[in-house]
Each structure stands twice: as structure tokens, then as C-alpha cells.
Amino acid sequence: MAIVGYTRVSTQEQNLHSQIDALKAAGADPIFSDKLTGKNAARPGLIDAKKFLRAGDTLLVYSTDRLGRSMTDVVTIVTELGERGVEFKSLTEPFDTTTPGGELFFHICAAFAQMNGRIISDRTRAGLAAARARGRAGGRPTVMTPERVKIARRMRAEKATWPTIATALGVGVSSVRRALEAPEEVETAQ
């Protein structure tokens, strides 16, 4: 049963020395590290640490903000590890799933993170519904202007491929497909 350390700083200019020293003093060996922002999910050091960890091992961090950018991120990672039988411990916060009290505290925080995510999701849906009710469509404006759609339809009728059309119009293939697969608007005389 190994204590595996993980350290992270956000930029190349920052150093990991204080985190590494604290994790070594707590018995962590090996220690995996990243010099990347926490919002980047593809962190090589964290990926390697996860691969190294086995059931019965403990992942040790200096603080939870080194593991994830938000409590939701931390909960996701720790839950995934827990499903594999890996414990989690933070040196500076009372997160320690190796103890009953620490596990309880973690689950309480996880419940708050889940509730916060649902509240944000509900607010977002309500805001989008209110905007739609006022006739405003959300999302990014389309690059496929009516002129581009007309050209794309003509090219497609002449058997041009999706990539050829996209290149000719200077847009992505998916933009062309979406525009041409949408029903044509029929103009009505008034």
C-alpha cells in the first residue's frame, strides 16, 4: 500500500519544491507533478499518478486545489479513485478518506458540490428559456450566411463533397452539414 503524491503549479515559472517537501515528509513516494493550469484535464502527471495507483494505495496532495480547479473536479477524481479502492488525503484540509470522519466530510462536500452544480444548471436553463421567450436564440452566431447556404446548396447539387464546399466557403465541414441538413425556409408572400 503506497502513498502516492501529486503536486501541481499553474505556470512554468512557479516551483513545486514546497509541495514536494511536504509530501515527502508525509511519506509520499513516488510523487507525480504537473506545471499546468488546473482547468486542463489532460495533465500528464495526474494521468501517470492514476495509472500507478492500485487498490489500497492513497493519493496524497498538499491541498485540494492542486488536484482540481473546483470542488466538483476534486469530487469527480476522488470518486473515480474510490471506485478503484484508492484512498485520498489532503495535507492542509480535513479530506482523508482513510478515516471515517474524513470520509464523512468528503461526502458532505461532494453533496454540496453536486447541489451547487444542479443550481447552476437550473439557473442556466431558466435564463435560456427567458431569452427564447423574448425571441433571442442562444449560442454562437452561425458562419453560414444565407449567401453561403445558397452557394453550398448549389455546390452540393453539383455533387461537390462536404470538405470541398467547406474549403470553398472558408468554414468548417460541420457548419456546412448543419446548414444544409436544416429545412429550407419557405418565403411566404404577405
Layout of strands and helices, then pairs:
Layout: E1 3-9, H1 17-25, E2 31-35, H2 44-52, E3 58-61, H3 64-67, H4 71-83, E4 87-90, H5 100-133, H6 146-157, H7 162-169, H8 173-181
Parallel strand pairs: 1-2, 1-3, 3-4
Helix pairs in contact: 6-7, 7-8
Key attributes of the depicted protein:
190 residues; alpha/beta; Rossmann fold; 2 domains
Could you describe the 3D structure shown?
The chain folds into 2 domains: 3-110, 3-Layer(aba) Sandwich (Rossmann fold); 146-181. Helix 6 (146-157) runs antiparallel to helix 7 (162-169) and helix 7 packs across helix 8 (173-181). It is 52% helix and 11% strand. The radius of gyration is 25 Å and the shape is elongated. By secondary structure, the protein is an alpha/beta fold. A 4-stranded parallel sheet has the order 2-1-3-4, with helices on both faces.
Q: How would you name the CATH homologous superfamily of the largest domain?
A: Resolvase, N-terminal catalytic domain
SSE arrangement, N to C: EHEHEHHEHHHH
Q: How are the strands of the largest sheet arranged?
A: 2-1-3-4
- β-strand amount: 5-15%
CATH class of the largest domain: Alpha Beta
In the CATH hierarchy, the third-tier topology of the largest domain is known as Rossmann fold
| SS summary, helix count | 8
Give the overall shape, derived from the CA principal axes: elongated
Contiguous low-pLDDT stretches (5 residues minimum) are 186-190
**How far apart are the termini?**
78 Å
* Domains, number: 2
The value of Rg in angstroms is 25 Å
Total count of strands: 4
Helical fraction: 40-55%
CATH architecture of the largest domain: 3-Layer(aba) Sandwich
Largest sheet: 4 strands, parallel
Task: Report the mean per-residue pLDDT as an integer.
Answer: 86
Structural class: alpha/beta
